[in-house]
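retry 2 of 3: previous attempt timed out while embedding xanthosine-5'-monophosphate. Reduced batch size to 1 and resubmitted. Inputs unchanged:
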Amino acid sequence: MGITEIPLDKLDTEAFIEQQVAAIREAAADGIAMSALSGGVDSAVVTLLAHRALGTRLKSYFIDTGLMRENEPQQIVDWFAALDVKVEVVDAADRFFEALRGLTDPERKREQGITQPFYKDVFADLLRRANANILLQGTNFTDVQETAAGVKRQHNVFTQIGIDPQKAFGYKVLEPILALRKPAIRAVGRALGLPTELAQRPPFPGPALAARIIGEVTRERVAIVRQATAIVEEGLCDSGAFQYLAVLHQDRVTGVRDGKRDFGYQIEIRCWDSQDAVTAVPTEIPFARLRALADRITGTVPGVVSVTYHIAAKPPSCIEAV
Ligand code: XMP
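retry 2 succeeded.
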């Protein structure tokens, strides 16, 4: 794939930051660039690098796709305001739900439902509005490796699979952390002054909660997985795990509520131990803790009657369900 990884033990953080800041300045020349935050550490690190390089010539956005976690937009705006970076929230939920309507195939959901609206519509419009021609994004070494190997179409990989963003979308995409995996990205983030809470945040995928909904992604189904996600994140944030999440299944199952049949939703909890997301094993969560999570989910998320814990490793599983 033509990129050489810089592993954490070979990373000179300060030199890396200097090089990337210089490369961003050179690419932008006197122009304006744009970055889009997702709530994850990768886009946060890239935004700080670009802000250091360009100051107010960087326009930073948080695209609210309607697929985000609870309170995510405000949390990101607040974190970045404390770092003197102004982030504008853009409501694009209608566009994403329209693109996702009727799609159930995972790869079509990723390509048609996420990549196209992001890059062809929302980013292209914002770049035009800001008079910018460079999009900065936090594609990392694992994203490229998985897409190039055909594991799944990560929403943000183009050049490395033969797509020229300039030709496909009309603007240039700059990827300063392409050679890094998560531990190295976190180290750069800490060196750039990212709050520990954000630098140490579990990864969150660009397709957001859509990567955790099996079958069609609708507003109603996102609401269910969003509520379950908040419970799982709160319940497992002290687990020390690499990533933890809730998945909404497509099939419903028979349950019983108030003495009557309830044909309800199934939530699957996943919690992973991993270094870099390439391989992962399920965390050994104490059973009582899992039971408590199940009670909270079935007790508070409307319509959920079943909660399971995912126990297969990656490979052959993946961290996300879609
Ligand atoms: P999988 O599900 O492939 O995930 O085992 C590996 C890691 O990548 C994240 N992920 C994504 N990140 N765009 C991203 O930016 C994507 O399309 C995407 N898909 C998965 C996932 O959360 C995990 O950390």
